[in-house]
Design goal:
Layout lengths: L1 H62 L3 E6 L2 E2 L3 E3 L5 E2 L1 H13 L2 E6 L5 H6 L5 E2 L13 E2 L4 E10 L14 E5 L3 H7 L2 H4 L4 E5 L2 H10 L4 E5 H11 L3 E3 L5 E5 L2 E2 L4 H16 L2 H10 L9
Parallel strand pairs: 1-5, 1-6, 9-10, 9-11
Antiparallel strand pairs: 2-3, 3-4, 6-14, 7-14, 8-11, 8-12, 8-13
């Protein structure tokens, strides 16, 4: 009987021992499973968060159009033109590229025929016109940023032409770009234009300067900023008459009513003015800060 009881007791102890071992193994498995589950949950959460962020960024890019398509005249240095490396460059384009970068938009410079700019904007082929675009006289035609630069319309003549003032343009052939601010300014002074022998228009100012160099015209009416740059780059014997045709300001023009994109660009330009970026880009192109935002 004692042996039987002893055997039962031994069996009981062994069973308990095995149960204890089994419990220990089960506990270890549970902990590992819990850790794996937690890791999996964290990975899933991180993946979900990443996917959600990507989805949000994509939605934001889609809502903003994903790109900033900048319409410009590629023959209008230094504001926008085709560089020697075959890439579009210029003061305005560099500003636009920086704005697009800060807004998380893809920057796309789109050369356009200047007299087709309104059609390009209305059709949605471009998002804005950013190319030494004069606000004066066009205030109600576009949704504008604030002016970022001041400008004047002037006459460029040969250094030895004998033309020293606008009065000396009487009987002379004057040329300007079609649908330009200079053309608009000349229409405001019929008494002056009536004295010209002829007033011609051309598609771009590169052609106008070639005409002036060849003696086909006596003067060019154009933006003073562009005139100064052209004269310097060409190392030409041209001068700018001191008496100006008109004063004006440059802004970025958007399709009428597109205040959402205008506001984003305006805020970014103000940010660039505050951190010195506008000043830096201006000094690169003009040797001085000619910008007006925040001043």
């Amino acid at each position: 009987m004692k042996k039987r009881l002893a055997g039962i007791a031994l069996a009981t102890v062994m069973a308990l021992s095995l149960a204890g071992c089994g419990g220990s193994n089960g506990g270890a498995t549970t902990a590992a499973d819990t850790m794996a589950a937690d890791t999996s949950a964290e990975d899933t959460t991180a993946a979900d968060t990443s996917a959600e962020a990507a989805s949000t960024e994509a939605a934001q890019a889609e809502s903003a159009g994903g790109t900033l398509v900048v319409g410009f005249d590629q023959d209008f240095p230094p504001m926008g033109f085709l560089g020697d490396d075959g890439e579009f460059t210029g003061f305005d384009l560099e500003l636009a590229q920086e704005v697009a970068k800060r807004l998380g938009l893809e920057y796309k410079p789109q050369p356009i025929a200047w007299d087709s700019k309104d059609m390009e904007l209305e059709s949605g082929n471009i998002d804005c016109i950013w190319n030494g675009f004069t606000m004066t006289g066009r205030e109600d035609n576009y949704t504008w940023t604030e002016a970022y630069m001041a400008n004047t319309q002037v006459f460029v003549v040969g250094k030895d032409s004998g033309i020293a003032s606008q009065a000396d343009l009487a009987g002379k052939v004057v040329e300007c770009q079609v649908d330009s601010s200079a053309e608009a300014a000349l229409k405001e002074v019929p008494d002056l234009t009536a004295t010209f022998k002829e007033l011609l228009t051309t598609a771009d100012y590169n052609t106008a300067f070639m005409d002036l160099e060849q003696g086909a015209v006596d003067a060019i009416a154009m933006d003073v900023i562009v005139a100064g740059y052209q004269i310097q780059q060409r190392n030409a014997d041209f001068v700018i008459l001191e008496d100006t045709l008109s004063a004006e300001e440059y802004g970025v023009g958007f399709k009428k009513g597109n205040t959402e994109l205008r506001d984003k660009v305006q805020a970014t330009l103000e940010e660039m003015a505050a951190d010195g970026t506008l000043k830096s880009i201006s000094e690169k192109w003009f040797g001085e800060d000619v910008t007006t935002i925040g001043k």
